[in-house]
Predict the 3D structure of the following.
Amino acid sequence: MKRRSTAWFGPTDRDGFIHRSWMRNQGLPSHLFDGRPVIGICNTWSELTPCNAHFRILAERVKRGVYEAGGFPVEFPVMSLGETLMRPTTMMFRNLVSMDVEESIRANPVDGVVLLVGCDKTTPALLMGAASCDLPTVTISGGPMLNGNYRGEQIGSGTSVWEFSEDVRAGKMSLEAFMDAEACMSRSAGHCMVMGTASTMASMVESLGVGMPGNAAIPAVDSRRAVLAHMAGTRIVEMVNDDVRLSQILTREAFENAVITNAAIGGSTNAVVHLLALAGRIGVELSLDDWDRLGRDIPCLVNLMPSGKYLMEDFYYAGGIPALLRELGDRIHKNALTVNGNTIGENCEEAECFNRDVIKPIDAPVSSKGGIAVLRGNICPNGAVLKPSAATAELMQHRGRAVVFEDIDDFKARIDSPDLDVEPEDILVLKNCGPKGYPGFPEVGNMALPTKLLERGVKDMVRISDARMSGTAYGTVVLHAAPEAAAGGDFALVQNGDQIELDVAARRLHLDVAEEELAKRRTAWRPPQTQHARGYARLFHDHVMQADTGVDFDFLVGGSGAEVPRESH
Ligand code: FES
């Protein structure tokens, strides 16, 4: 089989000279250009993405494996997305990075790709870009940080921040103690170590079969993470030799396995939009309703924050995803192929669970309600989502008065006011925070509770928005209302004092206002003014799709393969 890279490095003419000669300024011997597999290592290393700041070391481990198997590794950077620092939200740049990845792969002489991913959006962005090229691909997650430890207690990234900051606002924690907790939370390389979005997406990588067994949970600083990277390096060379492409791994069965796994881990709602977008790139039919149907009867088995009490380090020691998949038995498609050459069933058939309090047995779960509930109603005809395992059972069926915030600025200006007219049984509604609205679909849906209610000891309220929520967060939070308010969805029509009914069991979210009145409000509605006249923000605003179809750009759905017929000289 003629390799793709041979079109660059094979010819003995002027162009071949150019392709090899400039590469050789890196001290590369001529035999590396003899037609062996060229493996691109797509690196999201950045000191501004602290979760991925150890990736240069990880890349070196991949290179060892590639060389050992007779390949030629070439590392290249792509834009990195650091969840904690980027404004207005990393989600706005997921599609941009996917374009960077897709075009970097297609334009260069690589036969196979290793994706180094970690912080939340880096995983879907790299997978989406690679899927549109469809070369042999292995994904390696950077691994979670070691468990946080504060004054002898385990604390989790994000989850404990939300808890502590509410405690400070309620006067239960001093500012000194709050500041002290910072360093105790993030005490090693790696990504958030709760079952937040990064850990969820690392689990998706493993359950989709695009990562090696163990990918999800081995801590970033554990030597076995380096071994996994080394073995992934050897494996990608074999995959190129056998021409095993991403589309052979990312099948409908693989996506169903991932959706089921997401329910069993109590995974992030963000996985919904990312997997919908990825399925769109690789040509697999996957819908919001699949999420509800496939996950509905799957109990949450993994006892990790924010749904439970442990952290990713504990999950690894308990057996990680392989032990979980074994516990799920025939609920998963065991014949789905994975990147190590085995089926997912073969990968987990001998997996042992070493801690039954971390990975619960199927007949004694953390919660019988794993999965993602997809709600519909007159304010979200295309769907909205809620994570039952992170919600308050008593609020799952609730009727209340809407307390409406028109946008995030309105929310921030009024939420702490003693004059805010709000009671514990009210429903907080936040508009104009969807893909077009913020812009970028930020994680503000788990809006903080009003200070005056926190002081009264209120712990949770029903909250509804067209925004997303951090995977580290919790509460009875309805998210991703589609179509969003800023796109003219009827979610924009909710007004202060309206009655809203939430019935999670019936999958219903209803604004109890007469259709005549809604029609009047619809006629009076005007789109919010966009401040994005140019640049990437303009492209995003004009082409982003809604939450129920994955928030990809309309022109990026599908793939273009890896062939480029034209030469640059
Ligand atoms: Fe990077 Fe949470 S901030 S994974």
Observations:
- The pocket of FE2/S2 (inorganic) cluster is lined by residues 51, 83-84, 119-120, 157, 191-192, 196, 198 (CB under 6 Å).
- The mean pLDDT is 96.
